[in-house]
Design goal:
Length: 335
C-alpha cells in the first residue's frame, strides 16, 4: 500500500527517520534472528543488554560525554525530571535552595515542582510574556544555591538559549528535551542534562539523564526509589523494568544521527530548516509574525501568527486548512 505523503511538524512525538521505522518494523517480528520480537525480550537478557550498552556508547560518542558522567535511561518523562532534579540535587548544599531561570512554560513548571522540595529563587525579574531571555546583567544568582536550572529550548514559546549561562561555579542543570543533540554541546559545563526522547531522539517513554558522578548520592529521603539517581546509576538503569522498546528506538535514531554526520551536521540542518521559515516571516511585511526576540529564536520550534501580531483567527484557520490539504499536519501550536 502506498503511504500517504504527510509532512509532520509535530514537536514531539515527532517525525522519525524512515530507515529507523523500517528496521523496527522488521525487528518487531524477529529481533536479529532470535525468533522473538524486540517487544518480547526480557530486560535481563543479553540481547537487551547489548541494546542498552550500544545506546549508551553511541550517546557518549555523539555528545563526547566524559567518563565521570553517568548516563541513565529513565521513565517519567521530562516532567518526572522536574521532580527528580530537586529531589536528587537540592540537598547538595546546606541551604537546600536552587536558582531557576523561568523563560517559558516548561521552566515555569519545573520551578513550581521544585518549590515542593526546597527554596526556589527565580533569578531575574518576572517576565510578563515568554518571548525573550532576560539579560544576564539582571540576574541575581545565589552563590549558596545547590544548582542553577534552565530550559535550553522552550518548546511552546520557541525561545532557545544560544549560550550557556554563567553560574560562577554553581552546578548547572539543563532541560534539553526539545533541542537534545540538535547541536554540539560541551557536557563538561553541566552538572546535569536531561531530555525526553520523543522530540529528537526517538519515541515517548524514555528520558535520558546525564549527570556528573560527584552530584549523585545527595538525594532527599522522600525521593521515590525509581527517581533516585544513585540507585538507577548503580543498577545501569535496570532497578526496575526500563522502557525497553523506547531505548531500542533511541539506539536506532542515534545510529542514524551518527551516520548522518553527528551533532554538528544536525546543527547545520536545523539552521537551514528554521531559516527557511524565519526568512519568509521576516520578508512578509508583518503578514506572518514571530513574537520571539531575534537573539533567542529557536531553531527547533518556530511559533508565528498569521495576519497580524496577535493573530487573525479567520486567516489562521484558513492557513491551517490550506496546510492540511497539502498534507502538512500539527502546525497548530499552543494558544
Ligand atoms: N521539557 C520540555 C522542554 C518539553 O518540551 C516537554 C514536553 O513537551 C517537557 C519538558 C515535558 O516532557 P514530558 O511530557 O515527557 O513529561
Amino acid at each position: 500500500m502506498e503511504q500517504k505523503q504527510t509532512i509532520n511538524f509535530g514537536a514531539g512525538p515527532a517525525k522519525l527517520p524512515q530507515s529507523v521505522l523500517l528496521q523496527a518494523q522488521k525487528e518487531l517480528l524477529d529481533y536479529n534472528g532470535t525468533g522473538i520480537s524486540v517487544l518480547e525480550m526480557s530486560h535481563r537478557s543479553s540481547d537487551f543488554n547489548k541494546i542498552l550498552n550500544k545506546t549508551e556508547i553511541l550517546l557518549r560518542e555523539l555528545l563526547n560525554i566524559p567518563e565521570n558522567y553517568k548516563v541513565m535511561f529513565l521513565q517519567g518523562g521530562g516532567s518526572g525530571q522536574f521532580s527528580a532534579v530537586p529531589l536528587n540535587l537540592i540537598g547538595l548544599k546546606e541551604d537546600g535552595c536552587a536558582d531557576y531561570l523561568v523563560t517559558g512554560t516548561w521552566s515555569a513548571k519545573a520551578a513550581k515542582e521544585a518549590e515542593k522540595y526546597g527554596k526556589v529563587n527565580i533569578v531575574h525579574p518576572k517576565l510578563d510574556c515568554y518571548t525573550k531571555i532576560p539579560d544576564s546583567s539582571t540576574w541575581t544568582l545565589n552563590p549558596s544555591a545547590s544548582y542553577v536550572y534552565y530550559c535550553c529550548n522552550e518548546t511552546v514559546h520557541g525561545v532557545e538559549y544560544n549560550f550557556i549561562p554563567e553560574t560562577n561555579g554553581v552546578v548547572l542543570v539543563s532541560d534539553m528535551s526539545s533541542n537534545f543533540l540538535s547541536r554540539p554541546v560541551d557536557v563538561t559545563k553541566f552538572g546535569l542534562i536531561f531530555a525526553g526522547a520523543q522530540k529528537n531522539v526517538g519515541c515517548a517513554g524514555v528520558t535520558v539523564v546525564i549527570v556528573r558522578e560527584d552530584l549523585i548520592g545527595h538525594t532527599l529521603k522522600e525521593c521515590p526509589i525509581v527517581l533516585d539517581y544513585k540507585v538507577q546509576a548503580e543498577m545501569n538503569s535496570l532497578y526496575n523494568t526500563p522502557p525497553c522498546f523506547s531505548i531500542y528506538i533511541m539506539g536506532l535514531v542515534l545510529e542514524w544521527i551518527k551516520n548522518n554526520g553527528g551533532s554538528a551536521a544536525m546543527e547545520t540542518l536545523n539552521k537551514q530548516k528554521s531559516s527557511m521559515i524565519y526568512d519568509i516571516i521576516d520578508a512578509s511585511n508583518g503578514f506572518y509574525v514571530c513574537p520571539v526576540d531575534e537573539g533567542c529564536r529557536s531553531r527547533m520550534n518556530v511559533p508565528f501568527r498569521v495576519g497580524k501580531k496577535e493573530g487573525d483567527e479567520a486567516l489562521e484557520k484558513k492557513f491551517l486548512e490550506g496546510a492540511s490539504k497539502r498534507g502538512m499536519i500539527s502546525l497548530k501550536g499552543h494558544r
